[in-house]
């Protein structure tokens, strides 16, 4: 993970392709054979982790989307109430800190002004302890937090975050499983998920091998002005992240909605000029998502569907499908991020924008 582009045209593409390795590095030593390491922060922190009764996550930008995914995981697997909020909102409103709250910040740089300010405020508001999920050792966030769980993404140069996000998700899954295990996580499920995590880097590799097909899909977007991303459950934040990537680097207006909200507004915008991207793994919400897709088709909208090969969604008029490998449903958010990153990358390249340095944006926002 050196800081030069090597064979790649842009840092962003290089960083997308580094994901199998950096996810592996983030899991190393934390996920064992069939079991998760519950000693993520050493013996002294164990008692503290055992007393956690609520989780408050704070972040900005892409890191906030990682937090949104983690909320689904933490409540489902660890059974701990979890809230997620944008740092700039949290710091300026009156909040209520639940007893024994673990305050989790997520940040690639560890220098985002609002995230740091929120951490300082949380201490005054009586959080039990603070934990930083961060990519830069020695950053302000790491120094000011009680505990840290480092992502091992290596230097990320492209302003649009890619490998930092998937390593944040990997670290958050490790944290979730560790919290869940001391709260009675079923050992079969633990083994299932740790095995799935072990295969994750290879699955990401399989998705990267589909990049040419994604490049082909991208040609349909290059002249569009607007786009809509749909997902359900923990894939909703992934739809948000896909839309953010497209906005950031291709300057195409992109919105994301939980698919169940389609009827409550965005459907009014759908016509043949509005591509609709859906993240549609074969999970239990698939049937509902399929009916959302039919609503889009009935209005002439073209669908771009990232789907599990067993989901039973086949190519037909108005549907462009990319089949992805099967993975444990709880890990789908990580895997399904990758084709969306590739999609915005190739759209931006076709539109000729400055992929690594999008206009008006900074890699790290250290002022308010
Ligand atoms: C900026 C970057 C984003 C990033 C956000 C939060 O807006 O352009 O890519 O997600 O800051 O940064 P952090 O370093 O706290 O994760």
From TrEMBL:
GO molecular function: glutamine-fructose-6-phosphate transaminase (isomerizing) activity
Reaction equations catalysed: D-fructose 6-phosphate + L-glutamine = D-glucosamine 6-phosphate + L-glutamate
Signal peptide stretch: none
Class in the EC hierarchy, top level: transferase
Active site: 363
Sorted UniProt keywords: Aminotransferase, Cytoplasm, Glutamine amidotransferase, Repeat, Transferase
Keyword Cytoplasm (UniProt): yes
Localisation: Cytoplasm
EC number(s) per entry: 2.6.1.16
Domain SIS: residue ranges: 44-185, 217-358
TM region(s), chain numbering: none
Role this protein plays: Catalyzes the first step in hexosamine metabolism, converting fructose-6P into glucosamine-6P using glutamine as a nitrogen source.
Known partners and oligomeric status: Homodimer.
Name this protein carries in UniProt: Glutamine--fructose-6-phosphate aminotransferase [isomerizing]
Species for this entry: Pokkaliibacter plantistimulans
Shown residues within the full chain: 242 to 609 of 609
